[in-house]
Amino acid sequence: MTQNFALDRSNAKLMGVCAGFARWTGWNVLAIRIGLVALTLFALGPVALLAYLIVGWAAN
Fold first, then answer.
1. Are 49 and 36 in contact (CB under 8 A)?
2. Residue 48's closest CA among 9, 6, 58, 38?
């Protein structure tokens, strides 16, 4: 993780936040997307969606 976080619009499904996070950490983008959906449905709900939108807007 030596590089700065940036959205990855070439692999984006919505805004590129999950794809950018996957590129930044070196993790699998599908695992990150599934994790975000799981957090949204089972744990954090609107907080996870709000965080996603804020990161997408701020990293633009």
1. no
2. 38
* Residue 34 structure tokens: 């599934």
The whole-angstrom separation of Cα 11 and Cα 8 is: 6
Q: Specify the length of the chain in residues.
A: 60
Which of 15, 18, 36 shows the shortest CA–CA distance to 27?
18
3: amino acid identity, one letter: Q
Q: Is the pLDDT score of 1 beyond 90?
A: no
Owner of token pair 């794809």: 19
Q: What is the pLDDT of residues 26-58, one digit of tens each?
A: 999 999 999 999 988 988 888 888 988 999 999
